[in-house]
Amino acid sequence: MMKEDNMNEEKISEYARLAVEVGVNLQKGQTLMVCCPVENAFFARKIADCAYERGAKDVIVDWRDDYISRKHWLYADDSLFDRVYPWDADKRNTLAKEGAAYIFICGDDPENLKGVNGERIRRWETARGRDLKEFLDLETSNGFPWCVISAPVKSWADKVFPGEENSLEKLWEAVFAAVRINGDGTAPEKWKEHCKRLESLCEKLNGYNFKSLHYKNSLGTDLTVEMPENHLWLGGGDTARSGVRFVANMPTEEVFCAPLKTGVNGTLCASMPLAYNGNIIEGIRFTFKDGRITEVHADKGEGILKGAVDTDEGSHYLGEIALVPYDSPISNTGILFYETLFDENASCHFAFGQAYSASIKGGDYMSAEELLKAGINAESCTHTDFMVGSADLSIVGTTHDGEEITVFENGNFAI
Amino acid sequence: MMKEDNMNEEKISEYARLAVEVGVNLQKGQTLMVCCPVENAFFARKIADCAYERGAKDVIVDWRDDYISRKHWLYADDSLFDRVYPWDADKRNTLAKEGAAYIFICGDDPENLKGVNGERIRRWETARGRDLKEFLDLETSNGFPWCVISAPVKSWADKVFPGEENSLEKLWEAVFAAVRINGDGTAPEKWKEHCKRLESLCEKLNGYNFKSLHYKNSLGTDLTVEMPENHLWLGGGDTARSGVRFVANMPTEEVFCAPLKTGVNGTLCASMPLAYNGNIIEGIRFTFKDGRITEVHADKGEGILKGAVDTDEGSHYLGEIALVPYDSPISNTGILFYETLFDENASCHFAFGQAYSASIKGGDYMSAEELLKAGINAESCTHTDFMVGSADLSIVGTTHDGEEITVFENGNFAI
Fold first, then answer.
1. In this complex, do B86 and A86 lie within 8 Å of one another by their Cβ atoms?
2. What is the 3-state secondary structure (H, E, C) of chain B?
3. Rounded to an integer, what distance in angstroms lies between the CA atom of residue A194 and that of residue A188?
4. Which residues in chain B are contacts of A68 at CB distance < 8 A?
5. What is the DSSP code (8-state) at residue A327?
6. Predicted pLDDT of residue A118
7. How much is the pTM?
8. Mutating which of B62, B64, B71 best tests the A interface, going by the most A Cβ atoms within 10 A?
């Protein structure tokens, strides 16, 4: 549909340009890797156009297909879930080490892996974490510029707008709105301003240098999160090791940091369902003791969630804490996207698993050992976001002087 | 279009089953690799269904896209045309060594590389021949079961049926007819009979054990082709090293052999244009002396053709000689397909470059040196077919006793 419609053609072109120029900020002579579902080939083609116009060395597309993936998950030989094919690992790891830019286009059936053995998924996550370690470590420490964007497919659109004939068109429009695209070519400019706003919010939070944050709402969340010394709130753009600025998520409405790995205590209740590896998990509740998740509950998909938390030792601890006002542009659409890229930018969220090393001053240049010593969760092969924001969420920060500052009140920033 | 139409859905399913069951004859526990353009994902999905039903270990799809390929050929960094990415080479070579089945789905714009620097194409062919040597050697010596089939894309259909609105539908119907599919599920049976017919024709030709063949027609062909001792005419099915029978091309109407590498003399004129690596070459004429191509002429695309012949030393010699009656089912459609898989099965043809090692008795188990000693062209990284059949082609064979046998008269078998 999108190929035939001229107005949307302009938006698609603007979107591709946004991803290449602002998202990964592709430089002349740099290789670009694009992960894309086969249905959205027309979008990958636009990205390739932009990339070669900017002098890309090469554009390598890693295609995928929900249908064939599901068959693989259900019917492929069991031994295949304990390792990544060496050629696939070599490709990812080598390109990451060379500093190739990486655009991941989300757009999958949120329930594509429904009914797949959860143990298989857990084993695969472990194998992936081990075999793509170089790629994943470089990703979380900004070793190369990367950008996660989104392009709807029909199965996903039907989940978001069930029973609506023009669901795909509606979801595309929602995506365009969320990434500030209206087809007039001004999105790159708008994004520069937007990132500045997020960066000034980070400055304010970093100025407080909180010792801890206390989360509370009527869903049952009552959680104290200690912050490591030298923590840094981040948001908007990141800086790759090459010195190039990039924007890792589009949309992004969050400012984020990493908690003190061993300093999380209390109860944390999710406020939205989580689309995780082709499964939907609802009614999530975690209990924490000294940072470790000691109880895992979900009303639906509890087995899958427990498997995710059990991936490795590090996945039992939080790695990210992110603030998004309840009155955010994406939240205000009232749409539940069943896609973390959107849902996490409509809500305060946490992630269990690996922390982003830039959450500690100088962290991108620290070893895993140094990061652990600095107090953040730096040895997990997973990073799974889940949403906790609500209309009545309050967050009270305590500074090192013992001063209490209301950071969030009724779901929105109070600072 | 093909996804929506129920009648065609049945044909597509039958076609997928034919490729998996008869084409590569997939065995339980065997991996299947499928190369497919992204447009024809619906066909790859059907193939995956059939493969997993037969107990495939895994189905690995290698997707490609004409648009992004063309951009790569035109704009990617020049250094990339001298080597295959190591991970791509590793994937092909490893799967080939493991005996994975391989289905290549043709279906590309015949002029996709129009205007691309011919030297770039030649360098890439050389690099590919070197870096995929294990894969290519195992392919020509039946080290694994492989099958080349075809699924139309719009750009190709528009070349075959220019200006016709329903070109894609027409080309699909022509393809179905050529591979004996009408949607009633009987294609696998028909193929078994068809292969038997070709095999009995081979027996007859092998009985004559010709010393040489003399080709002549009004297009200017006047060529003597000596045959190696112990040559074998082949057609229909092949036997993979695992002992499993497979059919390497669908359609296939040919019986083929390899000539004595140094025993080809005279002039050979092509009777059809050749779609070669995204370029169309017309009016081909070669002169041979002691097997070597000494003159290369084309009315259109001569530079590309000369580059192809210059790929390596072996590409200056013939590697295949194939007989197809002028009154063959594909030829009788009157369609010029601009796709070797079809056009070579509508016409007697030759190939320059690598011979199939099974053309010599026991050849699949011989080294390159042994094959050369046996008299066939066994050291080229290319194999390029071109069509020479015409309505007035005559081929006269001479046996070792000096007896002359008319093999072809007026374009058709006379034996």
1. no
2. CCCCCHHHHHHHHHHHHHHHHHHCCCCCCCEEEEEEEHHHHHHHHHHHHHHHHCCCCEEEEEEECHHHHHHHHHHCCHHHHHCCCHHHHHHHHHHHHCCCEEEEEECCCCCCCCCCCHHHHHHHHHHHHHHCHHHHHHHHCCCCCEEEEECCCHHHHHHHCCCCCCHHHHHHHHHHHHCCCCCCCCHHHHHHHHHHHHHHHHHHHHHHCCCEEEEECCCCCEEEEECCCCECCEECCEECCCCCEECCECCCCCEEECCCCCCEEEEEECCCCEEECCEEEECCEEEEECCEEEEEECCECHHHHHHHHCCCCHHHEEEEEEECCCCCHHHHCCCCCCCHHHHHHHCCEEEEECCCHHHECCHHHCCHHHHHHHCCCCCCCCEEEEECCCCCCEEEEECCCCCEEEEEECCEECC
3. 10
4. 44-45, 48, 59, 61
5. T
6. 87
7. 0.91
8. B71
Report how far apart, in Å, the C-alpha atoms of A186 and of each of A60, A146, A192, A211 are.
27, 22, 10, 40
Among the partner-chain residues A48, A56, A75, the one whose CB lies closest to the CB of B52 is A75
Q: Give the torsion sign (CA, A113, A119, A122, A124).
A: negative
How many other CB atoms are there within 10 angstroms of residue A2's CB atom?
A: 16
- pLDDT tens string A314-364: 999 999 999 999 988 898 888 999 998 998 899 999 999 999 999 999 998
- Selecting from B61, B88, B91 the residue whose C-beta is nearest the C-beta of A68 gives B61
pLDDT digits (tens, 9 = 90+) for B3-25: 444 448 899 999 999 999 999 99
Residues of A in contact with B44 (CB under 8 A): 65, 68
Q: Which of B41, B49, B76 sits opposite A65 (nearest CB)?
A: B41
User: Residues of A with CB below 8 A from B41's CB?
Assistant: 38-39, 65, 67
**Residue B41 and residue A39: Cβ atoms within 8 Å?**
yes
CA A283, CA A296: separation in Å to the nearest integer? 11
Query: Are A48 and B68 an interchain contact pair (Cβ–Cβ within 8 Å)?
Result: yes
Angle of CA points A89, A91, A97, to nearest 5°: 100
Q: What is the pLDDT of residue A5?
A: 47
Which residues face A245 on adjacent strands? A239
Given a cut of 70, the residues of chain A with pLDDT beneath it are 1-7
pLDDT of residue B30: 98
Interchain CB distance below 8 Å, A45 and B59: no
Contacts with A52 from chain B: Cβ below 8 Å: 71, 74-76
CA B203: distance to chain centroid?
Answer: 22
What is the predicted pLDDT for the residue at A248?
95
Contacts of B56 in chain A (CB under 8 A): 75-76
Q: pLDDT of B275-297, one tens digit each?
A: 898 889 999 999 999 999 999 99
